[in-house]
Structures are given as structure tokens and as C-alpha cells.
Amino acid sequence: MPGPITLHLPDLAATGRLAARLAPRLRPGDAVLLEGPLGAGKSAFARALLRALAGDPGLEVPSPSFTLVQSYELPGGWEAHHYDLYRLSGPAEVAELGWEEARDGLVIVEWPERLGGLRPEGALVVRLAYGAGEEERVAVLSGWDGRMGEVG
Amino acid sequence: MDRDAAVLGLESSCDETAAAVLRADGSILAEAVLSQLAEHSPYGGVVPEIAARAHLDHLPRLVAQVMAEAGLDYPRLAGVAATAGPGLIGGLIVGSSLGKGIALAHGLPFVAVNHLEAHALTATLPGLVPDPIRFPYLLMLLSGGHCQCVAVEEVGRYRRLGTTLDDAVGEAFDKSAKLLGLPWPGGPALERLATRGDPARIPLPRPLLGRAGCDFSWSGLKTAVAHAVARSAGTGQDRADIAAAFQASVAAVLADRARHALDMLPGATALVVAGGVAANQGVRAALAGAAAQRGLPLVAPPIRLCTDNAVMVAWAGIERLRRGLTDEVGHAPRPRWPLEAMAAPAAAA
């Protein structure tokens, strides 16, 4: 079984290219969990992924920190739901945010630590960390054991 | 509409529960605002389910209170206006359902108010500025959930000139404050810390400064704050200097964006600022400077009318009722409701 894949992303454009490679692999029912500290680029990654999924490089993807979840209709008649759980205290509140219905589509989750028992099995986990340079990031992809080969 | 006709306004789109009774001449007969700050602060922000429950607990009582203070019975109202979006869906349902119920029970017209429109029209409230403000004017809405430049051309006619490409400016304040170890709400705490700091010692980027248009981007500035905090020795002076640099960057960018937006709206009579970030004195001074460079006044409603309140909702209701713009009680609240969408129903009415 392949282990986690570590990718060096020298700049935001590299993040966009990784998102563009991932987007066509995503299916209804999938979950992408974005981990990493404040400012590591979770929202930027989610934005790139949603734009790639929508096929619209200019798609407006506002931060969901305030509304906690933003939903997007995707070409092909399915939906993606972008969650930011930063301000929640736990899974009971996640359930109130239409989580169960959202799982029919794609969920992209920032601060997935708050999911507790709701954390989906078989999710793609993208852990982002600061790199050496100002714009540089390191992404560690894990969780997609059977599907990981498609990504790297 | 008679000058002494009164409208009941309800606001519950986010973390304030508010009710107000306003006369058509702009005089406030009664108002009450209940901030859910205490209930939310353990979470470092607004949590929607808690917000919905709190609105449900408090709004009916606030309505009874303002009606009693105004000395009015429901049948004597000229209408009921409630915020119906954009915002957190639970709170929107509570407020607009209560408003519709009152309207239905007493045979009154109902107005579903767009929260952003209410902010946009606050500046036309009589008595707010010595000279009544005229259309068109530029609105900069700067809050925790919104960051946009809007051309306000007429009641019901709005054009968004620019918006944030990522975070709202109030969110940048809150998250940077968190990185600096400050308590929520971060904006006021960061402003206090910044007064002791040197904005030049640890310079921070000024995203989109000088770029065409009037869009915003704050996510890179937040990341730069994270880097600066990590690199510093973490002394009190370091933190104060980073806070001062952050505020200086935000003020400089907002002033630059304001100048660009004013150039996109020839004939603008004023720069109007609304939203919680408008309470920041550094931001206000920078925006006043930008407006003055274009020979225009900065109109900043008093803070209590800048943040979420029901007076602005009642006033938007009055302005719409004057134009015969009412809504069916079947009107569904809309968590996302861009201002441009206002034009369509107005034209159809």
C-alpha cells in the first residue's frame, strides 16, 4: 500500500496545479479534509479546488469562516460544500449545518479536527504546512490508500 | 406615506437580535439591540445554531418592548420590515417568520429587507448628516462577513464595484488578533494594541495596493502576520509593532481601494462607510483622507448604526414602502442574496 505523498508547492500556482490534478478524481460522496495552522493556505487550496471543479477560474469563493458553510453547484448536476469549522466546538454543531445532506455531494472541510465521530472514512486528507520560502508550502496527502496512485 | 407613519423593523441575520420602531420622517420611536457576544465568545465567533436559538428566545420580548416604548398598537403600524438575507439561515427564519406573523395577524404590509441594502441606505436616514445625502454615493461595507464597494444609485438600484477575493476585512482583523494572542472580538483589541506599536519596524504587505479596480484580498496579509509573529521574539513590543503594521496596511489598502472606487463612480456625492470595521479610528482617518482627495465628505453613521441594528432595517422598509415595494408572506429567506439582485423584483413590482 502506498503511504502518504509529500509534495512541495513553491508558490500559489503550484497549489492550483495540484488542485487541478485532484479535481477530476473527485466523486459525489467524497470528502477532502484540509489540515494545517492559520494562514497555511487551506482556504487558498479549497478555492483552487472549487474553481477547477466548476471549470471557472474566476469563480467567487469567499471565505466560509463567517457563514461556516458555502455551497456550490457543479457542472454535471452535483454539489460541493465548503466548510470552515474553525469556530465550532464539536460534532453536534456540525450536524446542525446540514452535514448529512451535504455528504451526498463533495465536502471540503477546513479544521476537520472538529468533526469528531463525523469524520468520514476514506477521506482524502491534505495537511498543509509552511515551507522555507514566504509562499512555499508543503502538502502531505494521505487517506486515499487505494486511489493515491492516481494523484502523485 | 405620512411623515408620522411608523414601521417596525426586525434584525436577526447574524449575532445581534434587534427590533426598532421608526417613523417615516426618520425619528426613532424605540429601539433595542441585544448582542449575543457573551453567548458566542467561548467559540471565538458566531455559531449559527446558537444564534438561531438566542434570536428565538429574545426577539418576541424585544418586539413587545419597542412597541410599548413607542406607545403603539400593532394595527397602527404602516408596515413590518424584517431582514430576510443574506445571513445565517436559522436567524433569518426566526426574524422573518415573526415579522410575517405580525403582518399577517394585523393585515399590514410586509417588507423582506436585504441586510446589505439596509446598511447601504442608513446614510440617507434624516438627521444623520447636516446636509441630506443624495444619490449616487459610494458605500464601503467593511465587516466580519462582508467587504465590498457598492455604487448606491437609487433605492433598489445597486452596483457592486468590487469585493474581496478571499477573506472579509473584519475576518482579517479577528484572525490576525488571534495570531497575536488577543481575545475575541479581535478588532477592538488589536486597535488598542496598535496604539503602542511602531507601524514601520516590522513592515507587512499591502495586498492589491495600486492595482486597477477596487477588489480586496486579505488572506496574504493574515499569513504575513503569522510569519511575523513566528519570527519575532514574541515580546509585548513585537506584538504591538505587528498590530500597528497590520492596521497601517489595512488602512492604506482601504484608502487606495476607496480612491479607485470613487474614480469608478463619477458623480458620487459622498463616501459612506458601514460595518464594524468602520469603528476603527485608523481606518476612518484613512478613508476620510481618500474622500477628501476627491473633494468628497466621508459619511460614517454612528457606530451603533454602523453595526447590525434594526433601525436600518425599519428605514429600508420605509424607503421600500414609499415606492410600493412590498413582499408576499411566502417570501423565503435567502442566506446568499447579492445586492444586484434587488433590481429585478423592484422593476417587476
TrEMBL record, chain A:
Q: Name one GO cellular component term.
A: cytoplasm
Instruction: Please give a single GO biological process term from the UniProt record.
Output: tRNA threonylcarbamoyladenosine modification
GO terms for MF: ATP binding; metal ion binding; transferase activity
Q: InterPro entries, from UniProt?
A: P-loop_NTPase, T6A_TsaE
* Name of the featured protein: tRNA threonylcarbamoyladenosine biosynthesis protein TsaE
Location in or out of the cell: Cytoplasm
| This protein's UniProt keywords | ATP-binding, Cytoplasm, Magnesium, Metal-binding, Nucleotide-binding, Transferase, tRNA processing
SUPFAM superfamilies attached to this UniProt entry: P-loop containing nucleoside triphosphate hydrolases
Task: Indicate where this protein is primarily found.
Answer: cytoplasm
Q: What does the similarity note say?
A: Belongs to the TsaE family.
TrEMBL record, chain B:
All copies of domain Gcp-like, residue ranges: 28-315
- Identify the InterPro entries for this entry: ATPase_NBD, Gcp-like_dom, KAE1/TsaD, Peptidase_M22_CS, TsaD
- Put simply, this protein is called tRNA N6-adenosine threonylcarbamoyltransferase
- NCBIfam families registered for this protein in UniProt: gcp_kae1, T6A_TsaD_YgjD
Which keywords does UniProt give here? Answer: Acyltransferase, Cytoplasm, Iron, Metal-binding, Transferase, tRNA processing
Tell me its cofactors.
Fe(2+)
Question: Per the annotation, how and in what number is the cofactor bound?
Answer: Binds 1 Fe(2+) ion per subunit.
Q: Please list the residues that bind Fe cation.
A: 115, 119, 308
The UniProt function text for this chain reads: Required for the formation of a threonylcarbamoyl group on adenosine at position 37 (t(6)A37) in tRNAs that read codons beginning with adenine. Is involved in the transfer of the threonylcarbamoyl moiety of threonylcarbamoyl-AMP (TC-AMP) to the N6 group of A37, together with TsaE and TsaB. TsaD likely plays a direct catalytic role in this reaction.
Family, according to the entry, reads as follows: Belongs to the KAE1 / TsaD family.
Q: Which GO terms describe its molecular function?
A: iron ion binding; tRNA N(6)-L-threonylcarbamoyladenine synthase activity
A Pfam match: TsaD
Q: Which Gene3D superfamilies match?
A: 3.30.420.40
Provide GO CC annotations from the record.
cytoplasm
Q: Which reaction does it catalyse?
A: L-threonylcarbamoyladenylate + adenosine(37) in tRNA = N(6)-L-threonylcarbamoyladenosine(37) in tRNA + AMP + H(+)
The answer on whether this UniProt entry bears the keyword Electron transport reads no
Question: PROSITE patterns, from UniProt?
Answer: GLYCOPROTEASE
Please tell me where this protein is predominantly located: cytoplasm
The residues the record assigns to binding substrate are: 141-145, 174, 187, 191, 280
The question of whether Transcription is a record keyword is answered with no
Q: Per the UniProt record, which EC number(s) apply here?
A: 2.3.1.234
Q: Which GO biological process categories is it annotated with? A: tRNA threonylcarbamoyladenosine modification
Task: Tell me which species this is from.
Answer: Dankookia rubra
Which compartment or compartments is the protein found in? Cytoplasm
Q: Which gene encodes it?
A: tsaD
